[in-house]
Design goal:
Distance between the termini: 36 Å
Subcellular location: Cell outer membrane
Family: Belongs to the TonB-dependent receptor family.
Helix content: under 10%
Protein name: TonB-dependent receptor
Shape: globular
CATH class: Mainly Beta
CATH superfamily: TonB-dependent receptor, beta-barrel domain
Number of strands: 40
Radius of gyration: 25 Å
Number of helices: 5
Membrane topology: Multi-pass membrane protein
InterPro entries: Beta-barrel_TonB, Beta-barrel_TonB_sf, Plug_dom, Plug_dom_sf, TonB-dep_rcpt-like
CATH topology: Maltoporin, Chain A
CATH architecture: Beta Barrel
Structural class: mainly beta
């Protein structure tokens, strides 16, 4: 067991003691199990809430599927966490992407979930049935952990004992024989509660390669992943509670070819102390240990060409927020947060012709960010004003790249390269917003903000190659180079919108926005020679996105309708070595995205629903060479009580059998989830 996994077991040891200490606590104590309440100005920013029902009622059972109900939410590719490379699971909003790193901050109970080395989100480890809600804020922010929120924030909140019930379990299988098993036990412990949960997904997967492009070693997208969580919440006084959480996960997938195996694993632990008295506070500390492996197979010689055999990384950090009593019309937030990312990579390159090792490489480094923030909400009757400032002390240090020949001779040593020198600096960020309740039915809002994102260790220090067969024969190689001189990304943005509730159960919202990320990091094509295209991670002048976002919600008795639509005009502003990208649309960013869910819930535990989702056309690459066609899918979900706590669950993915192109390069393509039917049971004991 890795040393950084020990906090998980320490939490498990200390938790019963913390719970036992509550014997003298008064019975009127109410344990909430969440952070502090959102401030009054939260509606000034474009926020969409996804409730527990919607999280549980997805056709795939995956968290990323539920988050896609917010139009504009996207990963780098259209594949979900069963058939994509984990390192491509970066999250963005508002078409502010362009590479596989997350530009959206994803928090689970206040803890940033991005991988310390790559910046991707381990979606297979975050089971939706463990969650109470998800809050998606499109646009930047300067509050706690604001250094990563240049495209928005996704705040995931774990479910408490009341929401889970004593026992919750599920077992499903699909028409390919794949299975999904999950369970949670949430007993009361003194005046607090504990949650022990687990999930295991496995299957042979589907063919991601079209029939006409398969070769002898083509393989289905096989997957086998599990996660286990422990969460304990105990009151320390009438208004102070201790929250402890641990997470273990392991995820293994096969991508395109037999032997092209990838894995990601992690051990996370966190402690959180929340006080809801006159001097409210939220103090959090966490540690994450992650690893990643990846094998690349040649589609011509069928030999291994790269073995990224280990990428151990750690993320350590925390935050402290204080809300002093400054009067009923003010909510003042003072605080600091810190995150340290430390990671290394070890990989071996092989000759596709001989199968022999040609080079052994090591790379890695450290980045850190210390943020100090101040924010105030001021309520003046129907008007709420918000202003916040943040100062970040960032460092990029201890970067290195070392390459040796099979005999052990050093061929590249970054110790001789000044580009790998340590760097640091300060950067200020600001945000301000206003909400005006013009009438009981209409609210007007506006906001402006700045922010930053540090480059990831992957972007700074790791080069990689992608080998794919050409449709006309032969192979195409795309080699992307590292860049240790990358600058921080800087966000500038503003937006305005309205929220309209003309009648009970009926709500509409609309937002117009203009966001620009300066020094945006992109994979820039430098040129092509033979069958090899060379790209390099570069800071372009900016990625500029302007657009409109709409939302609607209808509640009429047992029937509900939720819709979201986003139109985004995004373009790259580039000069110098990246001038060929100027005016082009960022890679992997659609212009249109929309989703609508119609549901009928006639009684408790009864649910029938259909989800229609559309993603517009998007370019595979930075030069707009290959166009991924638009895709429109229809999903279905049903839950019907059978007997006592047992319900029948039926799910259908891509019911119309739409061909979803997830990758396209020189005619070679990958495709996404085909029509899939699931059936199983769910057990809920209160």
């Amino acid at each position: 067991m890795r040393p950084l996994a020990r906090p998980f077991f320490l939490i498990a040891t200390l938790a019963p003691c913390a719970a036992h200490a509550q014997d003298a606590v008064q019975p009127e104590i109410v344990v909430i199990g969440t952070g502090l309440q959102a401030p009054p100005s939260a509606p000034a920013y474009n926020v969409q809430q996804i409730d527990r029902e919607r999280l549980l009622e997805t056709a795939s059972g995956r968290l990323e599927d539920a988050l896609s109900s917010v139009a504009g939410f996207q990963q780098f590719r259209r594949s979900d966490s069963r058939s994509s490379n984990p390192s491509a699971q970066g999250v963005t909003l508002r078409s502010l992407g362009g590479n596989a790193t997350s530009r959206t901050l994803v928090l689970l109970d206040g803890v940033p979930m991005a991988d310390p080395f790559f910046g991707h989100i381990p979606f297979s480890a975050i089971a939706p049935e463990r969650l109470a809600t998800a809050r998606v804020t499109r646009g930047g922010g300067a509050g706690a952990f604001g250094a990563g929120a240049v495209a928005g924030t996704v705040e995931l909140e774990s479910a408490n004992a009341d929401q889970l019930g004593l026992v919750q379990a599920g077992a499903l299988a699909n028409d390919r024989g794949e299975t999904e098993l999950s369970g949670a036990l949430a007993p009361r412990v003194g005046k607090g509660f504990a949650v022990i949960s687990g999930r295991w997904d496995r299957g042979q997967g589907f063919w991601t390669t079209p029939v006409g492009q398969r070769v002898p070693i083509s393989a289905r997208a096989r997957y086998d992943s599990w996660s286990a969580g422990l969460r304990l919440v105990a009151p320390l006084s009438t208004d102070v509670e201790l929250q402890m959480r641990g997470l273990l996960f392991d995820d293994r997938r096969t991508l395109r070819f037999r032997g092209a195996d990838t894995s990601s694993s992690g051990q996370d632990a966190s402690l959180r102390l929340v006080g809801r008295g006159a001097w409210a506070f939220d103090v959090l500390a966490y540690v994450q240990a992650r690893d990643f492996t990846n094998v690349v197979i040649s589609s011509t010689s069928f030999r291994k060409t790269l073995d990224q055999r280990a990428t151990p990384s750690t993320g350590v950090g925390g935050k402290a927020e204080l809300r002093p009593p400054v009067g009923g019309n003010h909510v003042l937030r003072l605080g600091a947060d810190y995150r340290l990312n430390d990671g290394d990579m070890a990989e071996d390159a092989y000759s596709a012709a001989t199968g022999l090792v040609t080079a052994r490489r090591r790379a890695g480094g450290k980045t850190s960010d210390l943020g100090l923030f101040l924010e105030d909400d001021w309520t003046l009757g129907r008007l709420v004003l918000n202003a916040g400032a943040r100062a970040d002390r960032w460092t990029i240090r201890d970067g290195y790249f070392l390459e040796r020949s099979p005999s052990g001779a050093t061929t590249i040593d970054s110790a001789l390269d000044p580009a790998f020198a340590d760097r640091s600096g300060w950067q200020a960020s600001f945000r301000g917003g206003a909400v005006f309740r013009a009438t009981d039915m209409l609210s007007l809002r506006a906001a402006g903000y700045t922010g930053l994102r540090l480059p990831t260790l992957n972007e700074l220090y790791r080069s990689f190659s992608v080998v794919a067969p050409r449709s006309e024969g032969g192979i195409a190689i795309t080699a992307t180079q590292r860049n240790p001189l990358l600058h921080n990304e800087k966000l500038e943005g503003f937006e305005a919108g309205l929220d309209f509730t003309p009648a009970p159960g009926l709500a509409f919202n609309a937002t117009a926005f203009d966001n620009r990320i300066r020094n945006a990091i992109a994979n820039v094509t430098l040129g092509t020679s033979g069958n090899t295209t060379t790209r390099k991670r570069q800071n372009v002048d900016a990625v500029h996105a302007r657009g409109l976002e709409f939302g609607a919600r209808l509640r009429a008795g047992a029937i509900s309708l939720d819709g979201s639509l986003a139109w985004t005009d995004a373009e790259v502003e580039a000069s110098g070595i990246s001038a060929s990208l100027d005016g082009k649309r960022p890679a992997q960013t659609p212009r249109w995205a929309g989703t609508a869910t119609l549901a009928w819930r006639p009684a408790e535990r009864w649910s029938l629903g259909l989800t229609l989702r559309h993603v517009g056309a998007q370019f595979e690459d930075d030069l707009e060479t290959d166009l991924l066609p638009s895709a429109t899918t229809l999903d279905g979900f049903a839950q019907l009580p059978l007997h006592g706590p047992i319900s029948l669950v039926l799910r259908g993915e891509n019911l119309t059998g739409e061909t979803i192109v997830t990758r396209l390069q020189d005619g070679s393509m990958d495709i996404g989830t085909p029509r899939t039917f699931w059936a199983g049971i769910r057990v809920e004991v209160r």
